[in-house]
Specification:
Length: 315
């Protein structure tokens, strides 16, 4: 395949309602579009049990069901959907490069739509040992922990999936749930792979000197404390902070850590747009994310075709 054939018109980072709406608009305009999505189950909509306030749906759906519709529609119009976590990006040249563990994607424009399910380090020792035993990406870092003792903190589908990634490198893997998650404890796949599931535990502290050496856990029922020797701690907890770490300040980020855009969803960099909860939007709703995605896509189309105006009358 030639260099040109590998080049996307637009790379969309994030497959929630913002990213998938943008993908639907761009692919329907015959622009070569790829959506890079960390996980189908990791975004805010994927987490939502019941949605009934999105226009056009006549009965309540789960967030995952609504997301399936968004995804199917974008793919039907020709967008590529790839489940892959973006770990970095070079955005200030006309050809943008987006990095994943599987390879580099090149595109003439980028839309950032990674949502706001991130969190700031909150456990004692978490920030201090980041990159020295604390990680947020098993796919990226698992290979450094061959035969080491590691744990995953979290109980989402994504946390479980990443636990299996770590298990390929070491048999000393435990999964720590902060709630009384017996379903997780009894998960047959985890049992089959000999992964220890500790439920109802609170992380009190991550300890070490140069690198992580142990964690202090507190049992939430008995309040008993235990110290577990540990080499790696992989955090898979969710919060409500925009996910911008992979950008490494490649675009302007506000003090609240959201991506700054104008009302046409343009960032400070030419050809780079953002949409949805990752931006400094004041209302976090599916409808707003989807409409941001539409505006970002039309702005990208204008940029790609060097138009003076956005094309929004499609007669
Ligand atoms: C519990 C809950 C209930 C809610 N209920 C409602 C409701 O009833 N009605 C309503 O309108 N809104 C509701 N919301 C809000 C709504 O879900 C969000 O506003 C909306 O999903 C935001 O869309 P988004 O595309 O910006 O982000 P998200 O839906 O969060 O999607 C972001 C996507 O980016 C991906 N991603 C993240 N990091 C990376 C990376 N590094 N590389 C690649 N991909 C990445 C994620 O996997 C995810 O698929 C609710 C939110 C929550 C948390």
């Amino acid at each position: 395949m030639s260099e040109q054939e590998h080049l996307y018109d637009c790379i969309i980072i994030g497959g929630g309602p913002a990213g998938l709406s943008a993908a639907q608009y761009l692919s329907r305009l015959a622009l070569k579009t790829v959506v890079l999505d960390k996980s189908k189950t990791a975004g805010a909509l994927a987490f939502t049990n019941k949605i009934e306030n999105y226009p056009g749906i006549t009965k309540p759906l789960t967030g995952a069901e609504l997301l399936d519709i968004f995804r199917a529609q974008a793919v039907t119009f020709g967008a590529e959907y790839v489940e892959s976590q973006v770990i970095g990006a070079l955005l200030d040249n006309p050809i943008k490069e987006v990095f994943t563990m599987e390879g580099v994607y090149k595109g003439r424009s980028v839309i950032i739509a990674t949502g706001a399910m991130g969190r700031k380090p909150s456990f004692k020792g978490e920030k201090e040992f980041l990159g020295r035993g604390v990680s947020y990406c098993a796919v990226c870092d698992a290979a450094f922990y061959k035969d080491k003792t590691v744990c995953i903190v979290g109980e989402s589908d994504e946390a479980v999936k990443e636990t299996f990634v770590l298990r390929r490198f070491t048999d000393k893997v435990s999964l720590i749930a902060q709630t009384d998650n017996r379903k997780l404890r009894d998960n047959p796949q985890l049992i089959a792979q000999d992964i220890k599931v500790l439920i109802n535990k609170r992380i009190e502290e991550i300890r070490g000197s140069e690198i992580v050496e142990s964690i202090v856990l507190v049992d939430k029922l008995s309040n008993e404390q235990e110290i577990l020797p540990m080499d790696g701690v992989f955090m898979y907890l969710h919060g409500n902070t925009p996910i911008v770490d992979f950008l490494n300040f490649a675009v302007d980020i506000s003090d609240d850590r959201c991506v700054i855009t104008n009302r046409m969803m343009e960032t400070n960099l030419e050809g780079v747009f953002a949409a949805g909860d990752v931006t400094c939007v004041e209302v976090r709703q599916v409808l707003v994310a989807a409409s941001n995605g539409c505006v970002a896509a039309l702005s990208a189309e204008k940029y790609l075709h060097h138009r003076k105006r956005r094309k929004y009358v499609w007669g």
